[in-house]
Amino acid sequence: xxxxxxxxxxxxxxxxxAGASDHGFVxxxxxxSLDGWHVVPAEREDDWSVxxxxxxxxxxxxxxxxxxxxxxxxxxxxxxxxxxxSPANSGIHIRGLLGHSKTHRVTGYHADLxxxxxGPGVLGAWDFHGYPRGSNLVNRGQVVTISESGxxxxxxxxDALTPSEVSGDGWNLVHVTxxxxxxxFTINGKTASQVIDQESSKRIDRGVIGLxxxxxxxxxxxxxxxxxxxxxxx
Length: 234
Known about the structure:
The protein is mostly beta strands. The protein has a single domain (about 5-220), classed as Sandwich (Jelly Rolls), CATH 2.60.120. Helix content is about 5%, strand content about 45%. The chain has 1 helix and 17 strands. The protein has one helix at about 5-20; strands at about 25, 35-40, 50, 55-60, 65-70, 75-85, 90-100, 105-115, 125-130, 135-140, 140-145, 150-155, 170-180, 180-185, 190-195, 210-215, 220-230. The strands form 2 sheets. Strands 1, 3, 4, 6, 11, 12, 13, 14, 15 and 17 form a 10-stranded mixed β-sheet that branches. A 7-stranded antiparallel β-sheet has the order 2-5-16-7-8-9-10, with no helix packed on it.
């Protein structure tokens, strides 16, 4: 059974153990083990390992997720670097809920990462996995505003991320910002996409952070330098 620590207690433990990084960020991956992380489903735990300071996910086609056990969060910033060595896709679960869907291991918002060329609906997009939406929210290069009644209005972002600014075989830096009803993430300093979710009946206001390894084709994904800053009111 996955047990989650309250987020502020968990971050306090990390702070005491490792010290704060710049601007209030603290590491949530120690670089040597998967302590503080849990694989879902548990039978896929051998697909995740730590090598040379990196979290490595490798699969022949079965999907799984690596969940941070530090507790549920509402408002925060998350930074990490990722590398995908094959034409596959991965992503970051944001405000995720476990065990809420028969079709998805993690229900909630999902910042899509992927190999260059995988398409605007994957690389740099925002999804919502599982009930009550279970669909793509916005493609790379756009911002979507979802009204209280559930209507979606799209607009193009200025100076948005383009595929040429993402390394196909090297490391890419991701910065996710979540505050209230606003969700945004950048790749290599360029905004990928944004969501403004005003539909309170379907919005998830608190959940876990997780790393995804998508099912389908064999793939390998690596993560490193994972740091977190809670911006919730204390």
